[in-house]
Specification:
The complex is a heterodimer of chains A (110) and B (114).
Chain A lengths: L3 E2 L5 E4 L4 E7 L6 E7 L6 E6 L3 E5 L2 E6 L4 E6 L8 E8 L5 E3 L3 E6 L1
Parallel strand pairs in A: 2-11
Antiparallel strand pairs in A: 1-3, 3-8, 4-5, 4-9, 6-7, 7-8, 9-10, 9-11
Chain B lengths: L3 E4 L2 E4 L5 E7 L5 E7 L6 E8 L2 E4 L6 E3 L9 E3 L8 E8 L9 E2 L3 E5 L1
Parallel strand pairs in B: 2-11
Antiparallel strand pairs in B: 1-3, 3-8, 4-5, 4-9, 5-6, 7-8, 9-10, 9-11
The chains are: A mainly beta (110), B mainly beta (114).
Amino acid sequence: QKEVEQNSGPLSVPEGAIASLNCTYSDRGSQSFFWYRQYSGKSPELIMSIYSNGDKEDGRFTAQLNKASQYVSLLIRDSQPSDSATYLCAVATGGFKTIFGAGTRLFVKA
Amino acid sequence: DGGITQSPKYLFRKEGQNVTLSCEQNLNHDAMYWYRQDPGQGLRLIYYSQIVNDFQKGDIAEGYSVSREKKESFPLTVTSAQKNPTAFYLCASSIESRKTDTQYFGPGTRLTVL
């Protein structure tokens, strides 16, 4: 059974701090990795995609991938209350399926 | 303005009824997907379609049916055989069907069984 694991949280950080969200996956053949943000009652929206080992930065967001450790993370710098949401890690396993984690709830305190 | 639309936003079903959820996209994407989301759980794949007139079962297809008669449309029918259909249903699409690509989601339909 291919799995994607995330800490459910909630992760609580003060405004302006760095939020660190982590994800592990079981399938070593996984090729593509995604982070989605989902506000309560809404659908997921794509934040970042990453395909190769290392860091990828986009504004306040940095995705980090380590395929040897089967680990992907998302860093949010200068966290804002509007970042409060559930963050879903998704892993594409090389077929036509993407496996989603259950998500980590993030609260940014003003 | 390109995107994915789902209707209705809220749907109520009585026991024994079949209901159909609509999903339309004007992104010219080849692949379309249906997921179910329950509280505290990840998205679970119901069905997916890589091209018109073709679709495959996902992990939890029992009690559901789909069709893909047009590239733009991928409706999902929740049949009376689905014993616990109350959930948030999400439709997604991606550009290419021959590789795993970024999926973009519609706004969702929240189905409640009365």
